[in-house]
Amino acid sequence: MKCPSCGASFPKNDSVCEYCGTLRPAEPVSHPPSKADIFRRIRESPQFAEKNQALHLQKNAQADPVPSVVIGLLLLFGCITAFVMAVILLNGLSDLGPLSVGMFVVVFVFALTQFFKAFEVCAGPVKCFPVIVIGKRSKAGGAYRASMSYFITLEFEDGQREEFPIYAESLYGRISVEDAGILFLRGHDEVEAAFLRSRYVADFERVQISSGRVFATEVTENTERGKKKSTNQNLGATGLWPV
Description:
The protein is α+β, with helices and mostly antiparallel strands.
């Protein structure tokens, strides 16, 4: 193998060029890792070994967006109820007084129930899975106010593919197609919350899957003797896999 810096041949079994000190690049891998190998590397990664640690789960819970979503819905219900009651009182519709009070009680009980269910979801278990991201999409919605919904499609070890919603835009932005890593799912059917239709992505931690290719970035520095010395910094490249 030739040195990418000075063109000299590397000595056999030597990782440094004897002329310029450049590190020997790793041999490129002709084939990307298989999906089975990717999932194996995820499970063997330090991130997967630490997935159930209390610190990560605590950080994950603090970043959960569901309580803020529910609080927003509660405020909306409260404003609508207050407006209706104000209209009834200002127009002197005393006959509708019991109806307005009853409506307020129903809305209040429903809102309070959903409020506690939101925190029940956030305090519930976080399920972790090794996954590969195979797709992502966003959808615009909202009748009076523009809003965006975010979704990602994931592939599991058994080959099953499923789409999950993401409520945090920042989390959606840092996930890319072909990322491999650990999925943190929240939400469970036992809660039966009106605001939660399915499980959702609470967090995603990317795991670096090296394909064995190492690229050397050459940095030239002036030494005290006036000579140029080349030093290399090895950068690992993430391998691609068939989707």
